[in-house]
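User: Reviewer 2 asked us to show a designed sequence for the structure in our supplementary figure. I'm pasting the structure tokens here. Could you produce the per-position amino acids so we can include them in the response letter?
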């Protein structure tokens, strides 16, 4: 009987760089110390079966990828079918596997639970078949699985961060060249993630519409992507203005973090949130209130993380004040909105791997 092998992939928090990975821009993300874990056993029956501690029902799809991902039931199994199909297309042999999946990454929080899920499952299934897929190739396979499963046109940021994270470091990623730099997070800085209590899912949200509107600006300018636009070209076009100014904020944020100018980070995050709210229109009142509560409580800066429309806000602050900031923020937000927030202090985590 085949032995059980265990794999993990972390969720991520987007520190800055929202809605620009699909324009081949620059982003700064953090793989966080919350994982999707997959325990896998290879089988010889040509089937991939899966059970989840978070979701009801069992998944059972053909290991050769012939099952249609969007038609797979239960619904959470679409991601499994998407991974199986993409790996089959890449040349993985149809080796069966039994998967048991658990997750410490909150679903619907904007922390890339789906990307971590797909990366961890891809790791497990490639290992079961003796099929090597690493680094960016693994990230692109997971991204393609998301596209196949849900039709959501996500960029590459989430999967690359889950695959390539490093402990105690943020990841600066050039989404055009895939060049990356690991930026050490100073010990005196803490990263807080606070869930607004408003769940969100990209599927069914205006995310695809916002992306289409943003891409239409590039076409209007005769460009393939807005990375190649100038501020003068988009100054009066909100969707385009967000993309161009956000890319500059990411570069400024990276330079400040590299040089240890921590006082510059907070204002850049706040400007990013304002642009996401006003120019890209992906925020909601609860996220705006949460940002205000965090800053009032002593955070240096805060912004929505992920694609918006609910989920979480990320903030940075003095490490010694993390507890006080969290307590004051949750109390004030609860009083202002009547919603129950959930807060975590997160650390930079290593990228996806097998657990020995």
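Assistant: Here is a per-position design you can include in the supplement:
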């Amino acid at each position: 009987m085949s032995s059980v092998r265990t794999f993990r992939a972390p969720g991520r928090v987007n520190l800055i760089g929202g809605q620009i990975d699909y324009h081949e821009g620059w982003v700064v993300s953090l793989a966080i110390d919350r994982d999707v874990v997959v325990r896998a056993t290879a089988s010889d029956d040509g089937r991939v079966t899966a059970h989840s501690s978070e979701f009801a029902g069992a998944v059972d799809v053909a290991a050769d990828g012939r099952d249609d991902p969007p038609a797979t039931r239960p619904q959470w199994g679409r991601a499994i079918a998407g991974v199986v199909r993409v790996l089959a297309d890449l040349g993985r042999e149809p080796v069966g596997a039994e998967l048991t999946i658990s997750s410490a990454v909150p679903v619907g929080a904007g922390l890339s639970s789906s990307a971590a899920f797909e990366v961890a499952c891809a790791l497990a299934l490639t290992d079961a078949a003796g099929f090597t897929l690493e680094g960016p190739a693994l990230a692109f396979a997971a991204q393609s699985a998301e596209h196949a499963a849900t039709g959501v046109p996500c960029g590459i940021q989430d999967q690359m961060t889950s695959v390539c994270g490093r402990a105690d470091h943020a990841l600066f990623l050039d989404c055009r060249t895939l060049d990356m730099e690991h930026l050490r997070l100073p010990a005196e800085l803490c990263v807080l993630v606070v869930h607004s209590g408003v769940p969100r899912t990209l599927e069914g949200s205006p995310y695809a519409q916002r992306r289409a509107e943003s891409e239409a600006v590039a076409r209007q300018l005769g460009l393939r992507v807005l990375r190649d636009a100038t501020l003068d070209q988009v100054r009066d076009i909100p969707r385009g203005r967000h993309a161009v100014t956000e890319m500059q904020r990411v570069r400024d944020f990276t330079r400040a973090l590299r040089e240890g100018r921590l006082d510059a980070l907070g204002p850049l995050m706040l400007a990013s949130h304002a642009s996401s709210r006003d120019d890209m229109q992906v925020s909601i009142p609860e996220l705006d209130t949460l940002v205000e509560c965090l800053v009032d409580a002593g955070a240096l800066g805060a912004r929505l993380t992920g694609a918006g429309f609910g989920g979480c806000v990320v903030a940075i602050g003095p490490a010694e004040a993390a507890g006080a900031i969290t307590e004051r923020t949750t109390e004030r937000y609860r009083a202002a909105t009547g919603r129950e927030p959930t807060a975590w202090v997160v650390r930079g985590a290593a990228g996806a791997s097998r657990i020995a």
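For the response letter, you might also mention the following. The mean pLDDT is 95. The CA atoms of residues 94 and 296 lie 55 Å apart.
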